Amino acid sequence: MITIVDYGLGNIKAFVNVYKRLNIPIRIARNSIDLKNATHIILPGVGAFDYAMAKLNASGMREELEKQVIINKVPILGVCVGMQILGKSSEEGNSFGLGWIDGEVKRLDTKLIPYKTKLPHMGWNTVNISKESKLFYNIINNSRFYFLHSYYFYCRNNEDIVNTTEYGIDFASAILHENIYGVQFHPEKSHSNGIRLLQNFARL
Amino acid sequence: MLYPRIIPCLLVHNRGLVKTVKFKNPKYVGDPINAVKIFNEKEVDELIVLDIDASVNKSEPDYKLIENLAAECRMPLCYGGGIKTVEQAVRIFTLGVEKIAISSLIVENLSIVKEIAKMVGTQSIVVVLDAKKSIKSDKYEIYIHNGSVATGIDPVCLIGELENQGIGEIVINSIDNDGTMNGYDMDLIEKIRNAISIPLTVLGGAGTLDDIGQLIRKYGIIGAAAGSLFVFKGKFRAVLINYPTQSEKEALMDKYFKNSLSSMEN
Description:
A: nine-stranded mixed sheet, 6 helices, B: alpha/beta, eight-stranded parallel β-barrel, 10 helices
């Protein structure tokens, strides 16, 4: 079953509502036992990097999560800060990330952003497909998704980048390494494109 | 490419939706959940829902209503009204809301705002400033409690402090233009915009899509919010929840936004 990791961060309800409308059963995981039968895992997140890592570490789910993702190769989708903590570290804080995808989280450079209002990067931006992926099946290139963030995932390996989005720079708005997916935008709040993406994830 | 946001703003009063004129005479325009369902179909960029009773009556936020709204919303939802404590703010986020709007709390107790920010992340906090033009000068003043209490604070002077707190977005609402549908208060917007470096959404006065277009032509990336425009239709103000279709929106962007990309840099 699709399992949403509830470690006290992110809009769990929004994912639940999308899958309910799609008639796809889901489970919310609040402890490691809840994670055991996961076929797909969603790792949401909002707020600061360190706070997210502290909450995840305190949740008691990290060990089981690593087992499912790294050993059992269960597909996982990190969303927003849930994507960022897939990396090794962040300029936003001092904590180590999960380190599952080689890269670190950097602050968007305000000097390169050509607008008067700079950060957070907020609103609907286009997503440029750099590499085909099942996650974006039936989603046309340059579709718009909802973003709300000030930091981005800097990938060490270009082949992990699935999509890019332009905001001052072209940053990785979707990444994939083996069974590990991450999206910087919020598919759970991106209308039909987001619903399609979450449906695609469920079909992996 | 990032796009400007076009945002319906709904007011809740006695559990129904209302629309005011200059913050007075709330007119019933329908059921909140029903409106959200229509806005889902229209794929609106974002939605702001403000409970205009809660702070005035010193009552708790209506959690049941918020939960129902959040369950229905397929777009980012910003809720405001009656949020006074960290516990209330956290509870509202767990109901499935993306952003919370605070207003009177900024004036009453800024330290609680800091506490809330620590728990939920600063990006999710929106400050709504209700501003009214002074009769004596060309300055503006912030009002709280539905425009009933003057604070003596100039909104322009508050922007820097709010940015230092890490607030994610500011909504500037013109009391004078509210519900008039005669266009935004461009003078107020200009003043605020000159002072700001975080996302800005403007509210109060939009009467046509052209008003939104003019705003976007001038400022590029901005949040264009409106109440009356998206709940009334025609000169007799018949209640009809509406929003530009995807193709109307594209046409609006082609006309006002894409041709003005160079002016976005000012």
